Amino acid sequence: MNLIQLVIMIGIISVASIVGYIVINSTLFGYAIDESLKKSALIKDKVESLQKSMTNANINDDKGVNIDTMFQFKRAPEFQKIEDNINTKSNMPVTIASLKGDVVLVNFWTYSCINVLRTLPHLEDWDTKYADSGLVIVGIHTPEFEFEKNTENVKSALQRYGIKYPVLQDNVYGTWNAYENSYWPRMYLVDAQGYIRYDKIGESDYDRTEKVIQFLLNERNANKSIKNINHNNNTYPYFDNSKVIQNATNNTVANFLRQPVDFSKIQTPELYFGNQSSRSAIGNPEGFHLGQTIDYFLPSSYTSSSMSNSSTKPNTIYLEGKWKNNPDNVELQSNTGHILLDYSAKSVNIVVGVNSSDKNESQVTVYENNSLISNKSKGIDIGINSKFIANEPRLYNIVNHGSYSDDSHILLIEIHGKGLQAYVFTFG
Q1: Per-residue confidence band for 71, with pLDDT thresholds at 50, 70 and 90
Q2: What mean pLDDT do residues 218-225 have?
Q3: d(Cα 82, Cα 171) in Å, to the nearest integer?
Q4: What are residue 397's DSSP bridge partners?
């Protein structure tokens, strides 16, 4: 072998070595990437599994999520565009940042919604049981109706329902939108590090929600690295609870709201008087005409002493009197008026208000099935002679039967006093 051949041979060997090195390292690099992706997927699966387990009723493990995987959870957005702070220290703002170290239950609600109101006894129980252990409930009051934007109306509702925890008024839906919310009620549980760990839409599942609260409090109290653990200096000046309303039968609002509800037996859906929903539920031939005052008439067969459903549809509202058709309500323009409804449910609520410019109040009498509503069936807001006074905008419980029935009921509401605004019927 001459010198030239030797140089060529060495060159061939060198090139082969370089190619081999590249192939081997490329293989190893690809293997490393593949393993990394597998590991990431495994972590993601474990975290998603944990997230699912957090919404499972069988939460019996005090082990929290490792902080290295916290990026898998969404940070709770800050409260935004809040107009008023109620039940807070010196009416000062409450923020997610200031509550770091506590478990925070962010509750979206509005005070005239029956679905929301039925959650309140549970929230108040949790506030009593767990506030000293690090739970802070913050109510985000996002109004459905225009009158719910009024701070004094909200404060009156807090007194009525005995709400002691902070309530932030979200009139322009700033926080609602930040949380990408679309429901009343909705609860988010935020852990001590500021991550959303639980999301509950609607009523029910109270046992499950409480178990998640306990889980997060155990996790919070075991994690000594979290700063600002105790917020003893943030105790709030709660409203006086002595004004919680009771009716003549001594049934409290809270007892009414705690009644079990069987949704499968409620045959009548929510019925809106205005057209802010998909349509108005008014069934009169005169129809609904936004911005106009309509003179409505009931069939001649309908009176407080003689009711028949031969010429009307069930689950449909019928009016009598002159009513102005507003976007979210109908407003009585005559001195007297009637509302008629054929419904099937255990309890009936109506959201009504009065025209604040008139400074009036309306006297309302409730009839059912050809007579004044009986003592055993009257709602908690019904007083003597089956009457109630509509003097503030809120939900009034007018019927509360002892049990569900397959039968429908004919409800007739007689109103004396111009200016009553009817918004919605809801049922239980």
Answers
A1: low
A2: 78
A3: 7
A4: 349
Q: Kindly state the average pLDDT of the residues 57-61.
A: 38
**Phi and psi, residue 225, nearest 5°:** -80, -15
Judged by DSSP in three states, 151 sits in helix
pLDDT of the residue at 370 = 87
Note the pTM of the prediction, 2 decimals: 0.78
β-partners of residue 366 are 413
- Residues whose CB falls within 8 Å of the CB of residue 3, separated by 6 or more in sequence, listed in order: none
Q: CB–CB of 141/278 below 8 Å?
A: no
Q: Which single residue is written with the structure tokens 């807001």?
A: 381
214 strand-pairing partners: none
Instruction: Please tell me the predicted confidence (pLDDT) of residue 25.
Output: 41
Q: Whole-angstrom Cα distance, residue 300 to residue 414?
A: 15
The C-alpha atoms of residue 377 and residue 347 are separated, in whole angstroms, by 9
At residue 114 the predicted structure's pLDDT band, cuts being 50, 70 and 90, is very high
User: How far apart (Å, rounded) are the C-alpha atoms in residues 173 and 181?
Assistant: 9
Overall average pLDDT of the 129-146 stretch: 97
Pull the structure tokens for residue 342.
Answer: 């054929």
Chain centroid to CA 103: 19
Measured CA to CA, the distance from residue 280 to residue 285 in angstroms comes to 13
Measured distance CA(417)–CA(237) in Å, rounded: 38
- Paired with 168 in beta bridges are 85, 140
Sign of CA dihedral 274, 276, 281, 286: positive
Q: Per DSSP, which regions of 232-290 are E strands?
A: 271-272
